[in-house]
Amino acid sequence: MDLFGNNAEIDPQTGGIRLSNGGNKLAQLHPLWIRERVSGPSDFDVISRQRLYEHAELSADLKVSEIKPGQTDTIEVLFSDGYRSQIELNALTQELGWSHNPETPPEPRSWDAKLNKRPEFDWHELETAERMEEMLVSYFTNGYCVMQNTPTDRDSLKVLARRFGYLRETNFGEIFNVETKPNPSDMAYTDVALASHTDNPYRNPVPGIQFLHCLRNEVNGGLSTLVDGIAIAKRLIAESPEQAKVLEDVIVRFRYEGPSAILEHNGPLIERDHQGIIRHIRLSSRLDYVPALDSKTLSLFYAGRRRLHEMSNSSDFQISFPFKPGTLLMMDNYRLLHGRTAFNGQQGHRHLQGCYIDHDGPSSLYRMLSRDGKTTKVLREDD
Ligand SMILES: [Fe+2]
Q1: pLDDT tens digit string along 122-137?
Q2: Ligand 1 centroid – CA 335 distance (Å)
């Protein structure tokens, strides 16, 4: 049966639907899967979009009895329990991956020092939906974004970061100060160079997005450095698949011990998502403890980790730029490695503030924006 350019028929064996796009796409849809996709007025709560029934209430041997074209771009489906409802064809093809879903944030595009064009936006421009969308596209594509001309009042970062998500409080507080101090609890609070790293792999969950906000900078040096973790992982996979495989397979323990907390969490140095896309790099080479595995595995592990470290601190992959008062850096802590060049703390005051938010915030903002074309900040239920 032709359904608005797609072909659908009931599969007599499963009682589901065989759907094809008339080209090379074919899906075998289970009857219960179809039932959970119908979206008539009595299927979902209109506000929460939660289903109005428990899945266990449906018969386990439910079948599709009849399908026919409904109103524009919908399929009308009758089930063996006598229930009749509609499926939006567009939503179906988007979920099957046959058509683009405008709510899906752009996929990462890996970059090295040559390819990178530093994405930079003026804070005030982000009031318009168009610029906010461009900024988010840039962030999802590159894994980071630099914003200029933000306010430089102490703690204004709380307001800036909340534009994109919900603050993740840690033992360092809602926001932390990066400035030289006596008896530092972290190397960040000195004036030495910091090798490329990802933050806090010892936390569960690892903080998703990091902001660094410059309030004052009176020193030369202290440049911020960034590296695309996906790019170095891909290079390692190309150079030595064996080493890369060990870095994906071996679960490493990361540990932080400080005056107010003892934190531990485990994970591989390179992690893919369920689709096989590289999503999470953990590289924090002063805090990692690999298990006592056999010599062959550990030799591959150490060689692979060393190579990642070399690449992440080489000019082939690393970019650097200065922080000036009002610069705000937003970066995906699962993807980008960051560091800084050394500076002379006697030269003057350098004061950054930092904080974390979850990945959810910018993703939700992107979806909201794609839906209504005007939302330019993360909303809360009481907004
Ligand atoms: Fe850091």
Answers
A1: 999 999 999 999 999 9
A2: 13
